Amino acid sequence: MHKFFVPKSNIDGNNAVIDGEDVKHIYRVLRLQVGDKVSVNNSEGKEYIGEITSIDKKEVNINLLEENAINNESPVEVYLFQGLPKSTKMDLIVQKNTELGIKAITPIITKRVEVKTELKDFKKVDRWNKIALEASKQSKRSLVPQINVPIEFELLIEQLKNMDLVVVPYENQEGYGIKKLTQNIEKKNVNKVAIIIGPEGGFEDSEIVKLKEIGAEIVTLGPRILRTETAGFVCLSLIMYELGDLGGNA
Asked: For the whole model, what pTM was predicted?
């Protein structure tokens, strides 16, 4: 069954309206017709099974038949703070981390990141949020992760104070990885986790020192050096396996 996210305001009683780019996809690509059943999510985690009642070039109307109690979100919220990479690497980072269950992604500006525009004018965020939306549909997520505008490293330090656990993969760390980390913590007390990934050039020593000062766990992901676009979803996979729902419940 195909799944669509709509704004909460597009649901009124038992009627939901799908508009925007999804409309063309419905009638040209998926070739859905009146009477076909679809899944509709209100973008806040509530999901319904509905039946298409009308289709035109501007909108698709859905009669909501029942609420679907399914929840495909992890019991632990994981937030990725990603050193802003070059080129289109962020597209892959957003897509794969969304599939794995990330709650939100915030690019960070570290000392080894070059930014050619003002952060308030950063225009790639809209594309990243579209990628997150499409990945959420494909992976049957119950929520769409928020992709935020980039922030400076100093603001990152402030935001991390709200986390129960901060994990920082670092190429110079040895002998202390995710396995040992999760053995040393009370898993039941960990609800919000931050993963901090450096850019292509890695973190500077002074940045690691600041992260240690706020209690961040500096870990190794293993003997091989991973690219910045790989390290995030490897770390997320390990965290979701140890603390979340990756790998199943049995």
From this structure: 0.90
